[in-house]
Amino acid sequence: MTRTSLQTSNNDPPPPLNALTLTHREFAAISELAHREFGIELGAGKEQLVAARIGKLMRRLHFSRFRDFYEHLLADRTGQCLTLMIDSLTTNHTSFFREQAHFDFLTQRLFPGWEGNRPMRIWSAACSTGEEPYTIALIASEYLRSRSTGIPCILASDISTDALEAARKGLYPAQRLEQAMVPWMRKHLLRGEGQWDGWYRMRPEIMEMVRFRRINLVQSLPDVGTFDLIFCRNVMIYFSHQTQAQLVKRLAACLEPGGYLFVGHSETLTGIQHDLQHVQPAVYRKRGAKR
């Protein structure tokens, strides 16, 4: 589940001979806009990569001049062009069962001890193309379906409309899943045939556990309710310290007392003021008894 900002991708073609060149002022304008709207830091040294991806988007939208494209960005009240820009500037890198220790924590400590009188509520706050929330759903279906409390309700959100569209399909190349396949998983998957040979789709009962929604984490959060578990992994490393602190505060407010926040193993809340209790690497708990 993970959004990584401005990393080179194997799918990035070599720049065309007439590739866009951004002036220092133009790069600064795009950087300021990306930070203001999405909290993403476009650091020095990324000018060429940013220019290549912005240039590709400009050609797609039939703009020949950066100034015209930028003015369209600012004037577009629908936000669609801004969304296309962030999709072009970011690469969604994720996998099933990524950072296995978190899922071991679910199966060994959280799920066995769950004594709530209602289904657990879980938020995958940067779900990318769906691997993280579907991993959670697969594990929950296996470990909680027979419990009287029922299976969890999972909210999966991302800022990328393209990523969300892919996630809603629940369709993945076999090699992506088989690398993480454990014996019990196959019963929760449909194997493609004919033109879909070499693909898997999540079974309907798994897909029904997950509700997808577009949410921008650096803006005021919509009314999503409170959660027992929040996964927000490998996102904050691309935000400024101030944006990180604001996001942690928002996420903590969305946790039930006794609820858990999972961040990426390359992330830490050290230096950020918060009231969460450190449990183990990349796992934090909100103080208070479970309701």
Number of helices: 10
Q: Over the alpha carbons, how many angstroms does the gyration radius reach?
A: 20 Å
Order of helices and strands: EHHHHEHEHEHEHEEHEEHEEE
CATH topology of the largest domain: Rossmann fold
Low-confidence parts? 1-10
- Helix proportion of residues, in percent? 25-40%
Overall mean pLDDT? 86
Q: What is the name of the CATH class of the largest domain?
A: Alpha Beta
- The CATH superfamily of the largest domain bears the name Vaccinia Virus protein VP39
Give the name of the CATH architecture of the largest domain.
3-Layer(aba) Sandwich
Global structural class: alpha/beta
Structural shape: globular
The multimeric state of the shown protein is single chain
Instruction: Indicate how many domains the architecture comprises.
Output: 2
Number of strands: 12
Kindly estimate the percentage of residues that lie in beta strands according to DSSP: 15-25%
Sequence of strands across the biggest β-sheet? 8-4-3-9-10-12-11
Main β-sheet description: 7 strands, mixed
Question: Distance between termini?
Answer: 28 Å
